[in-house]
Structures are given as C-alpha cells and as structure tokens.
Amino acid sequence: MDWTERVGHLRQWNRGGERAPHKPLLLLYALGRFQRRPGEPLRYSDIERDLSDLLQDYGPPRRTSPAYPFHHLAGDGVWEVRTNHGTGSPGTGVRALRESEAEGRLVPALRAALAEEPALLGRLAHLLLDTHFPPSLHADIAEAAGLDLELADRAGAVGTAVAARTRQRAAELRRSVLTAYEHRCAFCGFDGALGRIPVALEAAHVRWWAFSGPDELSNALCLCSLHHKLFDRGVLGLDRDRRITVSREFTGRGTAARRQVLDLTGRELTGPQAGSAEVAPEHIGWHTGQVFRGEARTPEPSRV
C-alpha cells in the first residue's frame, strides 16, 4: 500500500478554487494522537471541540461542522469509524455521532505501517501541510493538531528530492520578489538587513501555491515575517485597488497592535518598482474569498 499516494489524493469538495481542508486537518490531528498514544481511538464527543477549533482557525472562512470530515474521511481508505452498534459511521449528524459513541481511528493497515516505519508519520504530515497550507502556517497547525514535527523528522529523513525542488523554487521566487519590492515590506516598509543579507523579509503568495497559485510576481508580495503570517491567517488582505484591508475580527489594544496592524487600514502598498508586475485582481479576489476573515474595517478619514 502506497500511503503517501493515498494521503496525497484525499477526495475533497472542490469548486472554483475554494478551500476545503477539513479532511487534511482531521488526518493531521489523528497523526498527532497516534504519535502520542498509538492504540487509542478518538471518540467524536471527546475531540469535537478540538476539531471545531482547527476548522475555525485554519479552515476556510465559512463555518463547517467537524462531523463532516469525521464521517467522510472513512471513504478515503485511511480512517475508520465504529459506534456502539458496530462498524460504520451513522452519518454527519452531530447528535447521532454523540449518542452512538462514535469513535474514529486510522485504519489498521496504516497504523501497522506507521508502527513498522516511524519515518512515515513525518512524511505524511509534511505532505498534508505542503499540499494544503502555506509554509508560514505549518508550525502553528502542527502545534494545534498536537503533532511534534521535530520528533517526526528525527525518525527519518524528510529532505526528499521533491522537498529540494520546493526549496529551490521558493528561493528563486524570493529573489525576484525582493528585487521587485526593493527589499522592503509592501505593507509596512520594513527593510532590515544583517550586513548585506535581508532579514525577516519573505515572498508571500497571494493565492496559495497549494491552490494553483503561480510562482509569479503577479501573485506575490514582499512581506516582513509578521505581516506575512497575518496575511496568511486572514487578518490582512487587499482590496480591488490594492489597498491594505484589516479584518474587523482582529483585536489589539496595545500601541504595537495599532501601529503594526490597525493603522494599515486603507494604506497603499509600498512597491513594486516601475516595470514589475503588480498583484493580479484574480489572485486578490481568491485571497479575499478564501483566506481573509470576515469583513474589512472601514478606513479612518485620514487614510482615505
């Protein structure tokens, strides 16, 4: 059984580039629990809150019940559900899952493969993260799912040829993006360097690479580490005029939060330099619909 291929081709709802990482998030959570307690099943009523939090924090802006991936993942050959009535899920009804004491776990063959080859867990975790989420969120998602990536990586080499090509691709994009934006964050203008080397400046995809976002300047911004993370979490975005938007769901009472986030509302981007491609409207539209959280704050009069 090629578990890498099976996990890499989870069946997901898909329409017009919309994100549906519900199954990947549940599977990451299941791998984290297997890492800590290999033989323990996951009762739905016990993990419902954890799954709900994962979906709310790292899923698409629309709300979805954790019952959906708990039930539907069983159709991908990596997950099984049992109830007090026997094998099989009672469906996607939350009440039915609770009352039947539904429990889910990785299928026996996958559990056996993970026990026999410890390095497999790390490969599967990285595959799920790379396929469905931008790199800036990997560590946060792994922690939220209870996955110790360092422990998983020590169990075996994850630096495959695919990973090497990914690193090369990212390095090439970063060089072109930093040049286009003259080594400054497009949101705040940060231009720090250590000697000749820029620090804390990154190439941020607008439409995520995992969702057909091209490695082109028309789909990239030069952002500092802070604003890259906030952009990928949906705190920050862009409007059709390429002005910065800030989610109404973001809260920050301190001076730093206001200066570094709230005061960005309605601000024009810094760059790119003349002759470089600006962010394309279609990629801005994807980010607004699939990543940005809630509604945008109204710019203060002085920002208009």
UniProtKB/TrEMBL annotation:
Q: Which residues form the ScoMcrA-like DNA sulfur-binding domain?
A: 4-148
UniProt-listed CDD domains: HNHc
Keyword check for Hydrolase, yes or no: yes
User: Is the keyword Metal-binding in the record?
Assistant: no
Name the keywords, alphabetized: Endonuclease, Hydrolase, Nuclease
Which parts of the chain are coiled coil?
A: none
Q: Fetch the Pfam families from UniProt.
A: DNA-SBD_ScoMcrA, HNH_2
* GO molecular function, a single term: endonuclease activity
Under the heading InterPro entries, the entry gives:
DNA-SBD_ScoMcrA, HNH_nuc, PT_DNA_restrict
Q: Which domain of life is it from?
A: Bacteria
Q: Where are the membrane-spanning stretches?
A: none
Under Gene3D superfamilies, the record lists: 1.10.30.50
Q: Where is the HNH nuclease domain?
A: 185-238
What the entry lists under NCBIfam families is as follows:
PT-DNA_restrict
UniProt name for this protein: Restriction endonuclease
